Amino acid sequence: MARCPNCGHRFTPYGDLKRNAQGEYPRAFEHWTREENEKVRALILERKTVLEISAALGRQPSAVNKRVEMLGLTYLPPLPTAEQPVDRNYVTSPVVSPETSPVSQASAAVTHSASSS
Question: Which of 1, 57, 78, 91 is at 20 to 30 A from 108, Cα to Cα?
């Protein structure tokens, strides 16, 4: 830990953070390559998890999640196996019912204010 010379705040220097992360994730803090982006796309299509992709690329799971988001991708649910039946409750996006939808709430407020005037 180091201390800020101005205020005395304790912090971990960037070089230490990078060295610590690269012990477990060799590509941590390195620029992403086109090949890595394509590998992420391929692994997503193979229904790999963030931890599997992280291990394959030598990147931190948080970096993989950010890259998946930046590329506009979403993780796919795993395919069912004989030991693990299909999970019918798996969703990749939030479920919004018509009653709680922001759009229906806004239209209801507009309808209500128009009828009360």
Answer: 91
Does any domain span residue 70? Answer: yes
For residue 71, tell me if it sits in a domain. Answer: yes
Mean per-residue pLDDT for 53-64? Answer: 95
By residue range, what is the domain housing residue 60?
Answer: 31-79
The answer to whether the CB of 27 falls within 8 A of the CB of 18 is no
Domain membership flag for residue 102? no
Count of structural domains, the chain: 1
Q: Give alpha helix (H) positions in the chain.
A: 14-24, 34-45, 50-57, 61-70, 102-116
User: Contacts by 1-7 with C-beta closer than 8 Å and gap 24+?
Assistant: none
